[in-house]
Design brief:
The complex is a heterodimer. Chain A is mostly beta strands. Chain A is built from 2 helices and 28 strands. By secondary structure, chain B is an all-alpha fold. The longest helix of chain B is centred in the last third of the chain and has 29 residues. The termini of chain B are far apart. Classes of the chains: A mainly beta, B mainly alpha.
Chain lengths: ~350, ~1000
């Protein structure tokens, strides 16, 4: 990489103005035909900024967490509704339709931890929410919007995985049963069958707490990062057993967030070393190291159109356009990626793309 | 009025004179008759019409040779009778017509008889009056085939008179009469309009005169310009009235193919024309020749009324004879469009009216044939355009381009037929590009420099009104007439308005890429195309034409903008000096001298006055224009898009601001004016407002470009211009980018210090302005954590850190600037001693060096820094100053004093003098500021005293006096004493005899060199 004659890639642009470290990012809208997506950012100072990617400016600011860090943002599939989780132990539901920005509902969280919640759509207006529960090792499952508690997932007494650090609700295509993946303080990842309230499988991926993971339900494969110097790739077999496929050594320890792009071709990690790293998802080949930030990168997010956003302690959000996602989803974009030996070629592809656009 | 109202009375009076006239035909008798006629009422005369006419006609018919004078008076009298009466009988009308015509008959000749002009005039008037006196039905009956020979004679007679007579009066009268004969008289006496049948009857009859009339009139029309415009305009009018009547499509389409047998004798029947297709074709061909001849001559006629009449001709013929005269349509349209830019506003207005009428009635667009002809015309014009642009003079180019403009106006949306032909688009664009070539040999363009780097002077208000009124003056290689440029601008705008914008933009973009030879012109054209597409200053004749949609326009503008501001088209070499070449400093210093002479721009002496500018200068000039044109384009695009342009600011504002900070005056001006266009278009009320509101876009560009400084060496300039032209509200954003700047500076100390130091200067100046620091980020701080420093204090501390390194830079210019920045840092940090003192401590050694061992300019500025520092951390500074600096300065003052005392007038140009002066100027205020102790003050005083000597150069004396004025403020008593020791102007008498008399050391002698200065100072003390 260092020998590359090309300049390191630059962000497409940078969003400034949060005036506080950025801890959560989420793209909102922007599906096919809906025009430019909006980007939501949650900051240490408790504000949520809504950014227009067309004007590259904040169009609105949501203040609902009494100055406490916003750790998680998620939009609900139906309507213009947004969930935000803050260190003030509150989960707020916002109505953003037609320029509104009001809290329509809120819930109290029982746990003070770092764990971000997760939701799973269950039909038109219903969705399931998983969030850290009252007991430090518990996960609470609720039916929403009625807030009916479904169950509490508590590890068996002898397991002692510590606090849940990150959660993801999902559901296999073949079965309607909701499943929950949870990364724990002890570095393990567990698969819960929510209906049965039991752990299907658990695997130790890291020796440090899992800081973030993302799961590709189609390939039944996930990737996780932790405070240590490695990424772990694990998979789920038909018997719903988790197993570590491989680990990928990093130069610097500490991954705060991991996201796989919606087209499942590449993934990005948010590094404590101020860098964003991009990997080929199938092969885990490193493609690029994006260095721009001057503080810890706390979060990364991908938009449906492929844009990558990274939020950092330096109060900036960098927006990167690494590969345009081809509009025809059937063409294997990996055609580019798979041929690349390393990041250098990725850069060359970018440079070519730029020049060819000009002609 | 009339005396005799009844026929009886009248008869009684008239009879004797009529009898008398019949008997003796003399002028006197005719006059007598005429005199009596005046006393007879019209009604009475009508009754006696035949009776009175008899002697007159008898006189005319008498075969004996007559005197012209008699004939003339008879004709005049006859005319008088006819003007008061009506002719009610067909026979009488015919006879009188023949008798009057015969007066000008010369036997055996086609030409009118050689008679006096008065007689000719009388006959013409007589004929005219006769035709007016004929009763309505009578007159129509008059025009039957049997009259053809007689009518023909009269017509040819009149044409001959109109053509050959010398007298203008006769010519006009003859033409007027011809109009009457041809039923074209527009007086009130013929209000009746003709029905279809009557029209056809007359048309058939007149058709046989058409060749004669048209040819004779053509000769008149194309005759000498000096013959007077009235004759030409009347002739033109008769020409087109006649032609459009006989050749009217409406009539012709009703003519049967087979001629009905005429009911007249054979001789006459031969004269009657049957207007069938073949005849029409033949006649049309011949007319086309005449029409071409007429247009060729008249379109350049010096009198505007004639050109106005030409437009009427075109209108009449194209409207009424579009089929019969289709062969003439080309020249006719050409004539019309050629007048679209006529110098006369009346002609222009009329021309535009007709064009609009044609467009409204779809004369061209709705008529395949015309549209084809027009396209054909435009084709052939496009083909010859490059040649014409090459060979014609300004006037010729003007009319050619006017013609082009007219075609475009008339064709409107159909212009795409022509543009779609690659060959023709090629021709058209080649011609435009060729004629728009700039003259880039002017050296001044490269030399004109901008010296005030801070504020961009101009707000949209100052340049209100016409957005482009203050466009930069350009010089073109192939023309000088400014109107030509406006014309070309209009041509491009119309192309943009009606043409396929994608096609045109693609085409000219290709030319832009193709060669540097075309690039400037292509950009100019692209700018106008976009302005035209938005309908800016475009006169639209085609109401239904749909403009390019805003979204499409934005897309197109975005792509052009991207091209304009791309590295290879935006960062062109425009001057010789550059930081990379390391020549900047030498040139700038020569420039410093020029500033003192008061000029904003100056001749950079590195260019000798070449007799022929070198290729490099030409290419730099070209590059400057290239950039200016592109900047102008950005302004145009903003005007074209209006508020929509706001979305493009994220990519457009940065490059424009970069050029606003350019050293080349022209570029900076163009950029400023582009920004004003942007302000107007996007609704910002000033440049400052524009920059403030979009600083996030700028900061984004700056911070990303700083990452690749070698690729974007102008980045610091952009930040600098932004800082000078924005206000404190930007601080949080700026703070974000300052770290990037400082980090980059740390990497490039050696190479780009100049530009960075300029940025730091701008930055600190902005920080200093901000009096009230914003409180931010305090929410997270617990009780045990110190509150974070205000942003500007952090920045100032970081900057001051860098200044310490740069204080010893090898370039004076940088050292000077750094001293300024340092001064500002101290001001900003004044209330934060914890930050300031350690930094001041570290800055001390290089600062001492500046004071004691540097250029006088640096010494002065270093003193200023010390003063500022003295106000903030006096104690800290006092001891160090007295220990490290004062001894050296005092020492050098003392050792230099004898030198300067002896020196001649040239001394004031030496470095030594300037140093002395700087130290003397700096010491006074500093001593006061630092509140020095007695010992140190004495030291200063001792060193300066010698300079109070009248032997010293005047300037040094002045400076020394000022030192003492400051010292007086600190310690007046000891200063008084000291001065008196030097020169004591008065004797001190003790107030009481018991006291000892005081004797101070200062001598009172006349020869004391200190007398004058000490006296002045002592006066101040009292």
């Amino acid at each position: 990489m260092a020998a590359s004659p090309l300049p390191p890639p630059d962000p497409r642009f940078v969003l400034r103005g949060t005036q506080s470290a950025v801890h959560a990012l989420h793209f909102f809208g922007g599906a096919k035909g809906q025009g430019q997506p909006l980007l939501l950012s949650g900051s240490l100072s408790g504000l949520v900024h809504i950014w227009s990617l067309q004007t590259r400016r904040a169009v609105a600011t949501l203040d609902g967490h009494r100055g406490q860090c916003v750790t998680w943002l998620h939009s609900l599939p139906q309507g213009h509704q947004l969930l935000s989780q803050g260190r003030d132990l509150k989960l707020c539901l916002w109505d953003l339709a037609e320029g509104r920005n009001a809290v329509v509902d809120s819930m109290r969280l029982e746990s003070m931890g770092f764990c971000r919640s997760t939701v799973l759509a269950r039909g038109q207006r219903h969705w399931m929410l998983a969030m850290p529960g009252r007991g430090s090792d518990e996960v609470q499952i609720l039916e929403m919007p009625s807030k009916t508690s479904v169950c509490t997932l508590k590890p068996e007494a002898d397991a002692k995985p510590g606090m849940p650090m990150c959660l993801e609700l999902w559901q296999a295509e073949s079965s309607p049963r909701p499943l929950l993946l949870a990364g724990y303080e002890d570095g393990s990842v567990a698969l819960w069958d929510v209906s049965e309230r039991k752990v299907c499988s658990r695997v130790a991926c890291h020796t440090e707490p899992v800081m973030g993971f993302d799961f590709d339900s189609q390939k039944a494969r996930g990737v996780s990062g932790s405070a240590e110097k490695a990424l772990a790739v694990w998979s789920l077999d038909e018997q719903q057993a988790l197993q570590v496929c491989k680990t990928h050594e990093l130069t610097n320890p500490g991954i705060a967030d991991v996201k796989i792009r919606p087209d499942r071709k590449i993934l990005a990690t948010a590094g404590w070393d101020h860098r964003v790293r991009v990997f080929h998802w199938r092969t885990m080949k490193p493609l690029a190291v994006l260095s721009f930030h001057s503080a810890t990168v706390h979060c990364v997010a991908f938009a449906a159109n492929g844009l990558l956003a990274a939020g950092s302690g330096d109060q900036r959000i960098s927006i990167w356009s690494l590969y345009p996602i081809s509009s025809d989803s059937s063409t294997p974009l990996s055609g580019h990626v798979e041929d690349t030996e390393d990041g250098q070629e990725l850069l060359m592809h970018r440079a070519e793309a730029r020049t060819s656009r000009k002609k | 009025m009339a005396v005799f109202d009844t026929p009886e009375e009248a008869f009684g009076v008239l009879r004797p004179v009529c009898v008398q006239l019949t008997k003796t035909q003399t002028v006197e008798n005719v006059e007598r008759l005429q005199a009596q006629l005046r006393a007879v009422s019209d009604s009475a005369l009508q009754e006696l019409q035949q009776y009175v006419l008899f002697p007159l006609r008898f006189t005319l018919k008498t075969p004996a040779p007559k005197r012209e004078r008699l004939v003339q008076s008879v004709v005049e009298c006859l005319t008088f009778v006819l003007s008061s009466t009506c002719v009610k009988e067909q026979e009488l009308l015919r006879e009188l017509f023949s008798e009057l015509s015969a007066c000008l008959y010369s036997p055996g000749s086609q030409k009118p008889a050689a008679v006096s002009e008065e007689l000719k005039l009388a006959v013409i008037r007589g004929l005219s009056t006769l035709m007016h006196s004929a009763y309505g039905d009578i007159i129509l009956a008059f025009y039957e085939p049997s009259i053809l020979p007689r009518l023909g004679f009269a017509v040819s007679l009149l044409l001959d008179l109109a053509e050959r007579e010398k007298s203008k009066q006769i010519k006009i009268a003859a033409l007027k009469c011809l109009q009457v004969l041809l039923f074209q008289c527009d007086c009130q006496d013929h209000p009746r309009s003709l029905d279809e049948l009557e029209q056809k009857q007359l048309g058939d009859l007149f058709a046989c005169f058409l060749p004669g009339i048209s040819m004779a009139l053509t000769r008149v029309i194309t005759g000498d310009f000096k013959q007077g415009h009235g004759i030409v305009t009347s002739s033109l009018k008769i020409f087109y009235e006649t032609v459009s009547f006989i050749m009217a499509d409406e009539q012709l389409e009703r003519i049967p193919q087979v001629q009905p047998k005429p009911a007249v004798e054979h001789r006459v029947a031969e004269l009657v024309v049957h207007r069938e297709a073949k005849w029409v074709k033949n006649t049309s061909d011949k007319l086309t020749l005449l029409i071409k001849k007429i247009i060729e001559c008249v379109s350049v006629h010096p009198h505007w009324k004639v050109r106005l009449a030409l437009i009427e001709l075109v209108e009449a013929l194209l409207l009424k004879c579009s089929q019969s005269l289709v062969g003439s349509a080309g020249p006719l349209l050409k004539a019309l469009v050629g007048l679209v830019n006529d110098e006369s506003p009346e002609v222009q207005a009329q021309c535009n009216r007709v064009l609009r009428r044609f467009a409204d009635q779809k004369v061209v667009v709705g008529n395949r044939a015309f549209a084809d002809i027009l396209s054909e015309n435009l084709h052939s014009l496009a083909t010859s355009l490059p040649r014409l642009m090459n060979s014609q003079d300004d006037q010729g180019k003007f009319s050619t381009l006017s013609e082009l403009l007219g075609y475009l106006k008339l064709l409107g949306p159909k212009v795409n037929f022509v543009l779609n032909s690659a060959a023709h688009l090629q021709r058209l664009s080649k011609a435009l590009v060729q004629v728009l070539e700039l003259d880039v040999t002017d050296i001044k363009i490269v030399e004109a420099r901008r010296w005030h780097s801070d504020q961009l002077s101009a707000s949209p208000e100052t340049a209100a009104g016409q957005p482009w009124s203050q466009m930069q003056k350009r010089y073109f290689r192939f023309f000088t007439d400014e109107r030509l440029f406006l014309l070309l601008q209009q041509v491009c705008r119309l192309l943009g308005f009606y043409g396929d914008l994608y096609l045109l933009v693609d085409h000219f973009m290709e030319l832009y890429h193709e060669s540097v030879v075309y690039r400037k012109q292509a950009a100019m054209i692209l700018n106008e195309l976009v302005a035209g597409a938005a309908g800016l200053e475009v006169e639209n004749l085609h109401e239904k034409h749909i403009k390019t949609s805003p979204d499409e326009l934005r897309e197109i503008v975005t792509s052009i903008l991207e091209e304009y501001t791309s590295q290879e088209n935006w960062h062109l070499i425009t001057c010789i000096e550059s930081e990379e070449a390391g020549e900047e400093l030498t040139v700038k210093q020569s420039g410093l001298r020029a500033i003192t002479s008061g000029a904003h721009t100056c001749q950079v002496p590195s260019f000798p006055a070449f007799s022929k500018p070198s290729a490099t200068i030409c290419s730099m000039n070209g590059n400057i224009w290239q950039i200016c044109i592109q900047l102008e384009g950005i302004g145009r695009f903003a005007c074209a898009l209006g508020k929509d342009f706001r979305l493009l600011l994220m990519s457009a504002l940065y490059p424009v601001l970069e050029k606003a900070g350019d050293q080349t005056l022209l570029i900076s001006q163009a950029a400023t004016s582009a920004m004003m266009d942007i302000c107007r278009a996007c609704g910002y009320d000033s440049l400052r407002h524009l920059i403030n509101q979009n600083s996030d876009y700028l900061v984004n560009g700056i911070s990303l470009n700083l990452r690749h400084l070698s690729l974007h060496p102008h980045t610091p300039k952009v930040l600098e211009v932004m800082l000078w032209n924005s206000d404190a509200s930007l601080l949080p954003l700026v703070a974000d980018v300052v770290q990037d700047v400082l980090t980059t500076l740390d990497q490039f100390y050696d190479k780009r210090a100049t530009s960075f130091v300029s940025v730091l200067h701008a930055l600190l100046a902005a920080l200093e302005e901000q009096s009230d620091p914003p409180k931010g980020g305090e929410r997270d701080t617990g009780p045990d954590v110190e509150p974070p420093l205000p942003v500007q204090v952090q920045i100032a501390a970081d900057v001051m850190e860098r200044c310490i390194h740069l204080l010893s830079d090898k370039h004076l210019k940088i050292r000077l600037k750094v001293l300024d920045v340092l001064d500002l840092c101290v001001v900003v940090l004044q209330s934060h001693k914890n930050q300031l003192l350690p930094l001041a401590h570290r800055a001390w050694p290089p600062l001492v060096h500046r004071l004691t061992n540097d250029d006088p300019l640096a010494v002065l500025r270093a003193f200023k820094v010390l003063q500022t520092l003295g106000g903030k951390c006096g104690d800290f500074l006092r001891s160090r100053f007295c220990k490290d600096v004062l001894p050296k300065l005092a020492g050098s003052l003392v050792t230099q004093a004898p030198v300067s005392a002896r020196a001649g007038p040239v001394y004031s140009h030496t470095l030594a003098f300037k140093l002395q002066l700087a130290v003397l100027q700096g010491l006074g205020p500093l001593c006061e500021r630092l509140d020095l102790g007695e010992g140190d003050l004495n030291r200063v005083a001792d060193a300066c005293l010698i300079y109070l000597s009248a032997k010293q150069p005047v300037k040094l004396q002045e400076a020394a006096r000022r030192v003492f004025l400051h010292l007086m403020k600190v310690d007046p008593d000891s200063t008084w004493f000291l001065l008196n020791e030097l020169y004591c102007p008065e004797q001190f008498t003790p107030p009481h005899p018991s006291l000892h008399p005081v004797q101070l050391r200062g001598t009172t002698g006349q020869g004391n060199p200190y007398a004058a200065n000490v006296l002045r100072l002592l006066q101040e003390l009292q």
